[in-house]
User: What shape does this take?
Amino acid sequence: MKILQINKFYHIVGGVDRYFFEVSNLLEKKSNKIAYFSMHDEINKNTKWSKYFVSYVSFKNINLNNGLNVISRMIYSLEARKKLSYLLDNFTPDIAHVHNIYHQISPSIISELKKRNIPIIHTVGDYHLISPHHNNLFHNGNICEVTKKHRYYNAIIHKCVKNSYIASFVEVLEQYIHWVLGLYTKNVDYYISPSTFLKHKLIEHGFPESKLLILPYFIESKKYDVNFSKKSYVLYFGRLSPEKGLRFLLTVMKFLPHIQLKVIGKGSEGEVLKMIVKKENIQNIQIIDQFIPEYLLRRFLNKSAFVILPSISMETFGISILESFASGKPIVASRIGAIPETIKDGYNGFLFESGNVDDCAEKISKLWNNPTLCKKMGKNARKYVEKNFSSEEHYKKLMNIYKKAIELHI
Assistant: This one.
């Protein structure tokens, strides 16, 4: 099968990008022909398809000089549609698999795919399709759904995006134009949700259930070594941002001075977390504020006792959960969002009430103080991920979705 894979980044920023590369590699291993469409960036991986990529744009420093260009790029990029048209003149896919395209690429490319009668699958990785503040529907330290349903204007009133009226206005404008024109809703054949929780959120916001299919991410468990001997620290890894509950976790760990915690990742909270640790002289926490390659992450995982996931927002799905389970590590996590769909309380980890310090501290202590239980749960975690999230099973289900979409165009 000839498949066009589309994602705004051609390097790994988060879980969505990791999945984009891993599913593409999986498809290629199965002898499918893959083409790629993305955005130029000096840190991109090498590919022959980069000649078709759209120009680089950053949304970090918007000013009067570049503001109009940036906003127009978000809403409808003529450049992206033109570049994709060139690619499609030289590569005619049986199907297009869209991942994250908002802002940097825009749904203008979906219009081009529709024009050429190419089936379109969209894997949904966050809440952008239903809200201007797509980052786990989180604002000012709390879950926020003030824009539900299509009340996007509330994001301006509440400054939901970057705590800014201007940034919020731009996102709201984008949302209303895409919704009114139906650039996503009218043109995508099927949406793939990695979790039941996210599927239900999309339905709540008006997406037709008939177009929503569930397919969780997968992991190559064989890449992860398993070591069940007693370890010296608990590990958090992932994005360092407010919705991940890391300030809450620091508070919890102050009550557990005998347990070492390593926090690894990049994000807006990195410097703040290091400042808190230094100011309050917390001796049992190490903040490693940097992106680390996958092979090094596997080493940190291998040497940890278990993983902690203290999120205070509605997670859509956590690839970090699969990575932890593949390493034979149980997880202590918040009972929120899609997290309980993979972490089974008492089997491959413990769940605690999100934001509850005492509950979290109790679950961490229970697992830390019982190495036998920790080992048992770790073995359960590895078995669970091998059985339910294998690449072979994922490939079969994904190909069935592709064929289902293609049949709509015959």
Remarks:
- The chain has 14 helices and 14 strands.
- The first strand starts at residue 2 and ends at 6.
- The CA atoms of residues 331 and 337 lie 15 Å apart.
